[in-house]
């Protein structure tokens, strides 16, 4: 049985082995600091998108993608290819008018430390606003300044709400500020088992320093929502209540003709099922065997070997951890990078999104919004 923790560990190992190698020709390279900060924290009643294998057939409801995006009203960034130019103008989310906060001593990274995130503040989301902050009790004193820094917390959410159109994040109803110290997890997204229409966005405030890292990670997390929300898949409470249980997964997969993610059964014409059919059909069985490995060291070693054997198929090393992570990484690169040329599978995974006019429009909106934000508008 594979756990989220072992995946995270593998991911860091891969990133470490791949320094200088994670460059997709025709695309901008992703700094290691970004890659190592993506994902994936499991809160008590929430389940994140770690993966599980597979699928057999029965009937499922038909599904039609329904683009609802409005055209961009202001073309700040022609072609959507100047994201990095605008990002370079952004300032740290933590460096507001006040003094920059120092790293809390109690959570300075230690070898072998847990990646578990400590919750500092929980907000509810009303429209595009966060409200009703609930402060976590009994925190160590060095975390209190971060808990009290509501201006920075507001800035982080306001930035997300600025760059992602509100109609696109309707299902995010909870916003959590937490930390696992510097590095590790920067942000994650998870689905509530108590309310299957409630996605929770979690952000590590201590890592909210580099706007490029933050933007990349928020786009990656939004990529999960885009590909796993209720328009894309049917949540499966059995899976959510029994994460990483291979037996439960096998049972549930017998009723899902499409890709079964760790949250539910993807819909026939969903982005992730189309992505899976196009890019994972030939490698899925081999990957599934590795994913079922229960020994974390063996899992890390085998998945590392698998990655290097198929390196031209993955946009980043983290992409190899599951179809869900693969499409989220490709999505983030779709937003950030210029349109790829060439024909490698990794490039095709970015070009995949160009087949959807609504997503091309969304890309333009997001990049324009980043640019407007960078101009203080
Ligand atoms: Zn992810």
Your description of this structure?
The structure is a single chain. With 377 residues, this protein is an alpha+beta fold. It has one domain. The protein has 14 helices and eight strands. The strands form two sheets. Strands 1-5-6-4-2-3 form a six-stranded mixed sheet. A two-stranded antiparallel sheet has the order 7-8. Strand 2 and strand 3 form a beta hairpin. The longest helix is centred in the middle third of the chain and has 18 residues. It starts with a helix and ends with a helix. 47% of the residues are buried. The site of zinc ion has 7 residues, from helix 6 and helix 12.
- Sketch the topology as an H/E string, one letter per element: HHEHEEHHEEEHEHHEHHHHHH
In whole angstroms, how far apart are the ends?
48 Å
Name the overall outline.
Answer: globular
pLDDT < 50 stretches: 1-74, 96-100
Number of helices: 14
Please outline the major beta sheet.
6 strands, mixed
Please report which band the strand proportion falls in: under 5%, 5-15%, 15-25%, 25-35%, 35-45% or over 45%: 5-15%
Structural class: alpha+beta
Counting structural domains, the number is 1
Helix share of residues? 25-40%
* Ligand roster: zinc ion
Strand order of the biggest β-sheet: 1-5-6-4-2-3
Cα gyration radius (Å): 20 Å
Per DSSP E runs of 2 or more residues, the count of β-strands stands at 8
Mean pLDDT: 78
């Amino acid at each position: 049985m594979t756990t989220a923790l072992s995946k995270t560990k593998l991911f860091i190992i891969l990133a470490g082995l791949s320094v200088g190698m994670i460059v997709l020709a025709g695309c901008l390279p992703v700094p290691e600091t970004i890659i190592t900060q993506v994902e994936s924290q499991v809160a008590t009643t929430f389940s994140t998108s770690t993966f599980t294998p597979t699928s057999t057939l029965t009937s499922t409801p038909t599904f039609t993608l329904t683009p609802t995006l409005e055209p961009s009203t202001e073309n700040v960034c022609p072609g959507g290819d100047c994201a990095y130019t605008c990002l370079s103008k952004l300032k740290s989310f933590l460096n507001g008018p006040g003094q920059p906060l120092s790293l809390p001593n109690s959570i300075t990274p230690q070898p072998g430390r847990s990646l578990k995130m400590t919750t500092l503040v929980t907000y509810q989301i009303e429209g595009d606003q966060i409200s009703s902050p609930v402060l976590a009790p009994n925190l160590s004193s060095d975390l209190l300044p971060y808990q009290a820094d509501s201006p920075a917390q507001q800035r982080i959410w306001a930035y997300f709400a600025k760059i992602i159109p509100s109609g696109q994040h309707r299902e995010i109803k909870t916003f959590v500020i937490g930390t696992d110290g510097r590095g590790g997890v920067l942000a994650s997204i998870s689905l509530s088992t108590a309310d299957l229409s409630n996605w929770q966005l979690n952000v590590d405030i201590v890592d909210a320093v580099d706007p490029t890292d933050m933007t990349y990670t928020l786009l990656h997390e939004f990529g999960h929502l885009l590909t796993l929300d209720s328009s894309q898949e049917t949540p499966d409470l059995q899976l959510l209540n029994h994460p990483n249980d291979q037996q439960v997964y096998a049972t549930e997969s017998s009723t899902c003709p499409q890709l079964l993610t760790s949250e539910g059964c993807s819909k026939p014409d969903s982005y992730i099922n189309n992505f899976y059919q196009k890019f994972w059909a030939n490698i899925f069985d081999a990957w599934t065997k590795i994913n079922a490995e229960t020994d974390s060291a063996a899992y890390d070693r085998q998945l590392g070997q698998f990655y290097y054997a198929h390196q031209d198929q993955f946009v980043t090393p983290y992409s190899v951890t599951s179809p869900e992570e693969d499409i989220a990484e490709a999505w983030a690169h779709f937003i950030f990078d210029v349109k790829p040329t060439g024909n490698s599978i990794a490039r095709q995974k970015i070009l995949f999104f160009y087949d959807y006019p609504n997503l091309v429009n969304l890309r333009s909106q997001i990049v324009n919004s980043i640019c407007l934000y960078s101009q203080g508008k």
